[in-house]
Amino acid sequence: MELRQRVTAAVRAQFGRPTGFWGRAAGLLMAHRSSNRRRNAWAVSLLNVRPEDRVLEIGFGPGIAIRELGRLAWKGYVCGIDHSELMVRRAKRLNAEGLRRGVVDLRLGSAEHLPAFDEPFDKILVVNATMFWREPVARLEELRRLLRSGGLIAVAHQPRGPGASDETSAAWGQEMEAALAQAGFSEVRLETMALKPAVVCALGVNRRDA
Questions:
Q1: Does the 34-205 domain belong in CATH 3.40.50.150?
Q2: CA angle (48, 114, 92) in 5-degree steps
Q3: The model's pTM
Q4: Most buried of 100, 137, 147, 159, CB within 10 angstroms?
């Protein structure tokens, strides 16, 4: 049991920035766990992505949501930013077709050091990445500047590990709802998906011209 706990802890520690052997193990888990696929598909569905949309995902991991976004925004542009070289390589394999068509663009980077973009985005997606942000409100303010007026952000989270529960999810949702409002987003609302534990997604609209 002690060895199993050490292995579990080693894999869990890799979810922040997967590297090496244990990072590959974490990537496999993220890519193949049913709840991860369902969580990402649900979060993407809340954005109501259109064929010509420009979409940005922060912390795309193995690229599950990127693939769905590329399928929906098939005449648009889907950019992903992740700070793990291992995940960028894995996501590029999963999204080879989107990359070949020029719809998908995957970059190594982080929410703290975002690249410059020529045009604003219509939608922004963040799934299970905010727990690695040191200053969530500041990060959200920067993301809001990348959205067009009327653009939509979806920030989803499903807690993992010991103590994860529906109550944990609800508490995170309340904090993120407040953070989005503090960052200047309007029409902030929460959506919940009934997994175990629940997935909570906070959404906000950029009304900077209102």
A1: yes
A2: 65
A3: 0.84
A4: 147
